[in-house]
Amino acid sequence: MKKGKKRGINRREFLKAGVGTLAMGAAMAGGVGFPRGAKAAKMKDPIKIACMGVHSGPLGNNGEFMRQGALLAVEEINSKGGILGSKIDFSFRDDENKVDVAIKNARYFVNTWGADFLMGIDSSGVALAVGQIMSELNRILIVTHGSTNKYNEDIAYKNKIKQCFRSGIPLYLDGIGGALVANEFPFKKWGGIICDYEYGHTSWKLFKHTLKTLRPDVEFVSESMAKLGTVDFSSHIAKVLAEKPEAIYAVNWGGDLVTLIKQGSVYKLYEKIGLWLGTMGGAMDVLMGLGREYPEGLWGTTRYWFLYPDTPRNRDFVKDYQKRWKLYPSHNSECAYAAVHMIKQAVEKAKTLDIDPVIKAMEGMQLENRPAGPCYIRKEDHQAVYTPPWGQVKQDPKYPMPILTNLKVFPAEKIYRNPPFPPIT
Asked: Tens of pLDDT along 125-176?
């Protein structure tokens, strides 16, 4: 890898771009939003949307991107008259990536602040825990980031907790999509460096199941489970390399993945293998955090890529986001933006805030003009269906961070698991 001046952006600089009042009925001229709906009878004013994500520690950039994307949507909608004439009041809280904090936040938002809708959440484990109490709180929850398949397959579909929806793609992209990429290369011996919790465990299991189905000759020769917040990956790298894998599948995200990739360079990891697949290696916070230290040629994905699809709608979204926040949007930005517009579109169709008509309006809904491309909300499990890419890291002087090239986009029918969701063996 050619070395040059570092161009990563640290968290303090990043947060300066957007920390301000977090509870508001914002109004802002301009911006390109989703189409307006027709007016109806007088609606509650304001309509309260509550959001939470991790906004502190090494993963805190995720929550900030989430907040920025949601707030951009709120400002666009309010500048055009709101939802059926009612403005949106928006509030954000840090869930610290902790179940107890998130549940406390959810109860505060509903019982004290008076939220009509809940959204956000970065952690898969937190998403599962908060999803379990939504029948009790009786508010729609749109998870924008936490990607465990158990949220849509178990919580929404099997347990029929009707209040639970998701705007981001599940870890099908990571596990099944990663296996589809791996299948295009000749490597047979695989190792894994995996984050030791729900997201990592299930992504790795799904990757192995899918790749073994496609290529019965592959072997999984080594794996190492790394706790969330690991700062020294040397033992994990050594353990996996000891079995001489030809390729490595890495499941990590945020600051953990930045640390892992940097230490991989120190130990010359990428010179000893033929292929690296890093599940969230295309996330904007990872690209920003690594800057020119990101080795070219590694593969990664993200739940939205700002250069895909190359459509007027997506280009307008990126332009508006940059104008508002002086940054490129991340997957958390776009998925939160889309969640607010899911709420708007469903309420305008239902012409009420009553939960059952709004749920019915969301089920099967074609999400209008989403920046990430064509999208609908699957009726059976309340899961957004759209197709973000995998790609290969490249340093490009036109951008302040690396970008993804050689994009691989797989049809939804190849990536998404479908009801009744057979067990993953």
From this structure: 999 999 999 999 999 999 999 999 999 999 999 999 999 999 999 999 999 9
How distant, in Å, are the alpha carbons of 261, 272, 405 from that of 267? 10, 10, 25
Please check whether residues 203 and 324 belong to one and the same domain: no
Domain range enclosing 342: 11-170+309-385
Q: Which residues contact 224 (CB under 8 A, 6 or more apart)?
A: 192, 193, 194, 235, 236, 239, 240
Same domain, 407 and 360: no
Which three-class secondary structure state does DSSP give residue 88?
strand
Looking at residues 283-306, what average pLDDT do you find?
Answer: 97
* Domain match, 298 and 375 both: no
Residue 1, domain member (yes or no): no
Please check whether residue 53 is in contact with residue 62, taking contact to mean a CB–CB distance below 8 angstroms. yes
Q: Are residues 125 and 46 in the same domain?
A: yes
SS3 content of the chain, % helix, strand, coil (to 5): 40, 15, 40
Give me the number of domains the chain comprises.
2
Q: What is the CATH number of the domain that holds 27?
A: 3.40.50.2300
Asked if 130 and 141 touch (Cβ cutoff 8 Å), the reply is yes
284 shares its domain with 399: yes
Pull the structure tokens for residue 63. Answer: 């929550």
Integer Cα distance of 105 and 122 in angstroms: 14
Confirm whether 6 is domain-assigned: no
8 Å CB contact between 366 and 256: no
Q: Are residues 129 and 242 in the same domain?
A: no
* 262 domain-assigned: yes
pTM of the predicted model, to two decimals?
Answer: 0.90
Same domain, 73 and 116: yes
Tens-digit pLDDT profile for residues 229-279: 999 999 999 999 999 999 999 999 999 999 999 999 999 999 999 999 999
Could you tell me the two tokens for 418? 């479908």
Measured distance CA(227)–CA(221) in Å, rounded: 21
Residue 54 lies in a domain: yes
What torsion do the CA atoms of 217, 222, 227, 232 make, to the nearest 10 degrees? -130
**What's the distance, CA 122 to chain centroid?**
7
Task: Check whether residue 65 and residue 150 sit in a common domain.
Answer: yes
Tell me the C-alpha distance between 407 and 393, whole Å.
Answer: 10
Q: How far apart are CA 349 and CA 72, in angstroms?
A: 22
Give the tokens for residue 334: 């776009």
Q: Between 48 and 12, where is the model more confident?
A: 48
What are the φ and ψ backbone dihedral angles of 131, each rounded to 5 degrees?
A: -60, -35
Which helix (H) or strand (E) is 254 found in, with range? Answer: helix 254-266
Per-residue pLDDT tens over the stretch 176-199:
999 999 999 999 999 999 999 999
